[in-house]
Amino acid sequence: MHNELKIFACSSNPALADAICQHLDVPVSPLTVSRFSNDNLFVQIQENVRERDVFVLQSFTEPVSDNIMELLITLDAMRSASAGRVTAVIPYYSYARSDKKDAPRISIAGRLVADLLRTAGADRVLTMDLHADQVHGFFSMPVDHLTAIPTMAAHFRKTHDLTKMVAVATDAGGAKRAGRFAVKLDIPLAIIDKRRISDTDVHQGQVVGEVAGLDAVIFEDEIATGGTLVATVDTLRRAGARRVMAGAVHPVLCGPAVERLATSGLDAIVVTDTVAVDADKRARLPQLQVLSVAPLLAAAIERIHSGESVGALFG
Question: Under 8 Å CB-to-CB from 154, ≥6 apart: which residues?
């Protein structure tokens, strides 16, 4: 068994790292990240990690390439410093969207980044709600794939009348994910017949299922530009939904997302803190509610450290 738990936070989400450490009653270990004059990243561990059980937290958020490179350098530094075991904690793994070759002469970048993590020195990965479940198989080291669905379902159970609620998938591809959410709440599921023409052009078709007179919760793994979500809101309104809400694990909120959501007519937007949401975005989206996954990540880290089952968290 590896001794002494150490948790380090890279730059993307220090608040989440702090919350995890509070649950575990351990301090965030010091790490220095800076740049040389030629813009190269420099990472230095500020305490002894020899034979320690080390967890390094970094979400792949904007600037994505910089954050990935920072994590890779940090993992390599841990290995060079003789850490006993190194776990990369990646609450949001953005390259999970690149999971297949759906155009000529492209990279399956989700697999490439997984290989880079192994090469850099990660012995295992802890992540949450991958965009595509098959990305789990891209990793050549153990992966603990958590889900925030129970956390989000518990919130809606406490705050809404489930007898008048329906879960909604924005397309057939998301039906499995939204279905898990629906099962947790024991509510029906509806699916939108969506046709994606390009990355920014989406055609919304009919609603498959009953939403008229019901409170609809659009459930997604992430909100990026918000285009699909806003189009789905319009479709559900036309179909007679009483209220329309959104639930998404990862609030990426890039590009025009905040402006779109602010004028979308959504009654509530419930997300988690896998991605840091700054004060400006929160102020511009008063219907936004951020749930913390720190207790879940802390419990998983504690179980990995002690050699207990992580799957038992969802038993």
Answer: none
Structure tokens, 213: 């007179």
Residues 63 and 11 in one domain: yes
The answer on 280 and 178 residing in a single domain is yes
The mean predicted confidence, pLDDT, of the chain is: 94
Out of 6, 100, 158, 194, pick the active-site residue.
194
The domain that holds 134 is classified in CATH as: 3.40.50.2020
Return the structure tokens found at 192.
């939108």
C-alpha span between 30 and 288 (Å, rounded): 32
| Best CA proximity match to 291, nearest among 154, 175, 163, 168 | 154
Same structural domain, 282 and 304: no
Q: What is the pLDDT of residues 168-179, one digit of tens each?
A: 999 988 999 999
124 in the same domain as 246: no
Domain containing 164 equals 149-291
Angle at 247 between CA 243 and CA 250, to 5 degrees: 155
pLDDT tens column, 118-148: 999 999 999 999 998 889 999 999 999 999 9
Instruction: Supply the pLDDT for residue 173.
Output: 87
Residues of the chain with pLDDT under 70: 1-2, 194-204, 315
Written as six digits, the tokens of 103 are 């155009």
Q: Is 194 a catalytic residue?
A: yes
Residues 109 and 68 in one domain: yes
